[in-house]
Amino acid sequence: MTGSWRLFLLCGLLQGAGCQTGTNKVLFATNVMPAIGSCVTVPCHFTLEKRFEEDLIPECKPIWRKGNKGPVLPNLTKESTGGMSVTFRGNLTAYDCTTTFYNVDNGSYYFRLECPNKLQWNFVDEPLTIQFKGDLPAPLLTHPKEQVVEGTLVELGCSAPSPCHPHPTIVTWTPTLGLSTQLQRDNEVTSTLTFTASHRYHGNNVSCTAIYFKQSQGKNVTISRSYQLSISFSPRNTSVSGSPCHPAREGGCLNLTCTSHANPPVSEFTWYRIHGERILQIGNGSALSIQLFNTNNWFFCEVLNGIGTEKSNVYKIDIQGIYSTCWQKSLSNDHQIRFF
Ligand SMILES: *[C@@H]1O[C@H](CO)[C@@H](O)[C@H](O)[C@H]1NC(C)=O
Ligand SMILES: *[C@@H]1O[C@H](CO)[C@@H](O)[C@H](O)[C@H]1NC(C)=O
Ligand SMILES: *[C@@H]1O[C@H](CO)[C@@H](O)[C@H](O)[C@H]1NC(C)=O
Ligand SMILES: *[C@@H]1O[C@H](CO)[C@@H](O)[C@H](O)[C@H]1NC(C)=O
Ligand SMILES: *[C@@H]1O[C@H](CO)[C@@H](O)[C@H](O)[C@H]1NC(C)=O
Ligand SMILES: *[C@@H]1O[C@H](CO)[C@@H](O)[C@H](O)[C@H]1NC(C)=O
Ligand SMILES: *[C@@H]1O[C@H](CO)[C@@H](O)[C@H](O)[C@H]1NC(C)=O
Ligand SMILES: *[C@@H]1O[C@H](CO)[C@@H](O)[C@H](O)[C@H]1NC(C)=O
Asked: Is this model's pTM higher than 0.90 or not?
């Protein structure tokens, strides 16, 4: 379809230079296929034999009929909700016969020029074929082929047909994650949403909604399509929790667990004990079982995925030799467990 549109646009621009072939011809997108229920605006351009050129005057009238000898479609300035009609949008003296068709059905439509002089011409050789196809389609959503890394710019595209000039299709995004720009081109509307990938959006769904005007029903119809964002990010919220044997005493056991939120998931966990000024590496893996000392019971983990690393909070456990059956696990950030 775009090919014919280009031809049309080119001829519109070059009118009088290249496309003025010296024959009576009408040109448009040859195969107009709007969705059922939509009105349709057809860009249209014509050429004339030399002998008719000066007969093309502002008083000429554009006529559209269904079938070669069929009924003339009323030319209305406002669309009617009833029968077939057209609204002429072109400028005849500029060889432009662009027209919007309302309530028409499948068939061939013929253009005629009727001037108050010898220019009375039926363009019988080039009928406009309108063939309705399917219902209004869901918008087409385009997204990155691969997972995007946090901090990079993401571009999502959404396009939908916009076949009827006075009622352009509107495309919207929810949620509005960033800037969107809308472009109306040929008989299609495209919206581009641009935003910076953040770990906060991972797994969220972004929808694109097309608002179509369904002319046969005189109302808007909305159709959405959504896409689940997949964003890779470095580890976040890395934290250590511990569960000591009871009672917690020197030589007793302590199980440590390191958790982190990362995409892709953490591939390496490394455990450290803080020993005075020194930091000792004491193990690997998301869980670690160790023996308690009476000093230096300070631990943290460090995690790594393909994107980055993060260190956890420091986990401290006090064993002061005064035990009680009552112990308390604090939910504060440093996960202290004290025994009274
Ligand atoms: C159709 O409408 C256009 C725009 O309103 C007008 O210029 C043209 O003369 C009309 N044609 C007829 C046949 O009524
Ligand atoms: C129609 O086209 C003619 C010739 O190009 C131009 O002079 C005229 O201003 C146009 N009329 C309108 C309403 O655009
Ligand atoms: C037009 O033709 C298509 C495909 O042949 C068909 O699905 C559709 O119902 C027809 N529409 C009308 C308005 O006749
Ligand atoms: C996004 O959509 C998918 C598939 O429809 C669903 O499984 C998932 O729960 C949705 N995610 C959110 C955050 O709503
Ligand atoms: C259809 O939606 C457009 C854009 O949101 C709005 O301007 C128009 O009034 C709506 N038309 C109807 C019939 O609801
Ligand atoms: C980290 O925790 C905070 C507070 O609970 C939460 O808002 C945030 O979404 C978490 N981040 C990740 C990547 O899970
Ligand atoms: C520590 O982990 C080991 C092995 O997973 C388990 O047998 C033991 O019961 C755990 N101890 C505590 C106090 O959670
Ligand atoms: C942890 O794993 C690395 C590589 O797999 C290994 O070099 C290191 O010795 C391990 N550390 C401990 C304390 O087990």
From this structure: no
